TrEMBL record:
<dbReference type="InterPro" id="IPR036052">
    <property type="entry name" value="TrpB-like_PALP_sf"/>
</dbReference>
<dbReference type="GO" id="GO:1901605">
    <property type="term" value="P:alpha-amino acid metabolic process"/>
</dbReference>
<dbReference type="Pfam" id="PF00291">
    <property type="entry name" value="PALP"/>
</dbReference>
<feature type="domain" description="Tryptophan synthase beta chain-like PALP">
    <location>
        <begin position="18"/>
        <end position="300"/>
    </location>
</feature>
<dbReference type="InterPro" id="IPR001926">
    <property type="entry name" value="TrpB-like_PALP"/>
</dbReference>
<dbReference type="InterPro" id="IPR050214">
    <property type="entry name" value="Cys_Synth/Cystath_Beta-Synth"/>
</dbReference>
<feature type="region of interest" description="Disordered">
    <location>
        <begin position="353"/>
        <end position="377"/>
    </location>
</feature>
<protein>
    <submittedName>
        <fullName>Pyridoxal-phosphate dependent enzyme</fullName>
    </submittedName>
</protein>
<keyword id="KW-0663">Pyridoxal phosphate</keyword>
Length: 377
């Protein structure tokens, strides 16, 4: 096997001063109904975005353990957002970054990653099992054999990913006087696990709501092709702290895109698929829990999604008609009881790898019923 030697890059540690310290915005936009408002942490305004926190943490942790040598290359799979974070961490700490994406990665994101100095490898077909994610990981393993001293952070299973969000939790605790409900998107499981524990030390009765994508396997739903990038997964990341969640919502692309556009028009702050999904669920939580303080994290901004979420031709081609978007979740008794094809909610959260499928005769609620607290808009 041919080896490839990547030229070391000079470190720029002053970049680390740009990490985090993002503002908190009050969002009162109708999503889609009037709602009393929630707080949104605007991580897209930080250099490298939200995942720069995790990227820096994973590389520093590996260096401290001797797993990542000075100037050695870093190789990781990405659907885009972590790639930006790793490009930031690579420049700050002096490591060449090699990213494995796929041909569904937006052209603008490919250009941006390369502009930041990352080497980008693209796989051109999904794996039969595990889809694009599995195909990217297979190519990643091939690259590890050709790059001397290369380090793979393995974001899905690396506890340093979780540890990187301690600063995010500390910022939220300092910016909020109280918090009742925290809404987190779930992909690798890093930021939900990283902030829920520290925040519950401040507010022990804090309720954690996870937001997943339809077609994602994280919480036990069947794997399906997913239009939304960065939300959900076709594998079961070990970083997901299933026991921490009080409930999970699955959101479809039509609902997420509609929420993104409503945010842009009504609050000026918006983002991509994950941002739209958590905003939708946060507004719902604020409606059904009157008087509760609700907060969420907007992982990125809108610029990456100008050709998708905010493009009318893309929306029409992919059936993202706001008229067909769900306006409230349906209740399902267990993640493996009913396949969620649109916005759905479940208050039974288990680890699909270790927990058995529940007995359907156990007297659970009837699937497909509206949430009892929602009422009429």
């Amino acid at each position: 096997m041919t080896t490839t030697v990547l030229r070391p890059r000079a470190a720029n540690p002053e970049l680390l001063s740009l990490l985090g310290r993002t503002p908190l915005a009050r969002v009162t936009t109708d999503l889609p109904y009037p709602q009393p408002g929630f707080w949104a942490k605007l991580e897209g305004l930080a250099a490298g975005g939200m995942k720069a926190r995790a990227a820096v943490s994973m590389l520093l942790g590996a260096r401290e353990r001797g797993e990542l040598l000075p100037g050695a290359p870093v190789v990781e799979s990405t659907s885009g957002t972590l790639g930006i974070g790793l490009a930031f961490a690579g420049q700050a700490l002096g490591h060449p970054i090699v990213l494995v994406g796929d041909t569904e990665l937006e052209l603008s994101m490919r250009q941006l990653l390369r502009t930041y100095g990352a080497r980008l490898e693209l796989v051109d077909r999904p794996a039969g099992t595990g889809g694009w994610q599995a195909a990217r990981l297979a190519r990643l393993r091939e690259l590890l054999g050709t790059l001397p001293d290369a380090y793979w952070p393995d974001q899905y299973n690396n506890p340093d990913n979780i540890a990187g969000y301690a600063s995010l939790a500390a910022e939220l605790a300092s910016q909020l006087d109280h918090l009742d409900v925290l809404v987190c998107s779930v992909g690798t499981g890093g930021h939900s696990a990283g902030i829920a524990g520290p925040l519950r030390r401040h507010w022990p009765r804090l309720r954690l709501i996870g937001v997943d994508a339809t077609g994602s396997t994280i919480f036990g739903q069947p794997a399906r092709p997913r239009l939304m990038r960065g939300l959900g997964s076709s594998i079961h990341p070990r970083n997901v702290a299933y026991e921490a969640f009080d409930e999970v919502h699955w959101v479809g692309p039509a609902e997420a895109a509609d929420a993104c556009r409503r945010l842009a028009r009504g609050s000026f702050v918006s983002g991509g698929w994950s941002t739209g999904a958590v905003a939708l669920v946060s507004a719902w939580a604020a409606r059904v829990h009157p008087g509760a303080v609700v907060a969420t994290v907007f992982p990125d901004g809108p610029h990456r999604y100008l050709g998708t979420v905010y493009d009318d031709d893309f929306a029409a081609a992919h059936g993202l008609d706001p008229a067909g978007a769900a306006t409230r979740p349906v209740e399902i008794p267990h993640a493996r009881a009913v396949e969620a094809t649109g916005w759905a909610r479940c208050t039974t959260v288990t680890d699909p790898v270790t927990d058995p499928v529940p007995d359907p005769a156990a007297g659970l609620p009837v699937p497909g019923t509206p949430h009892p607290l929602e009422g009429s808009p």
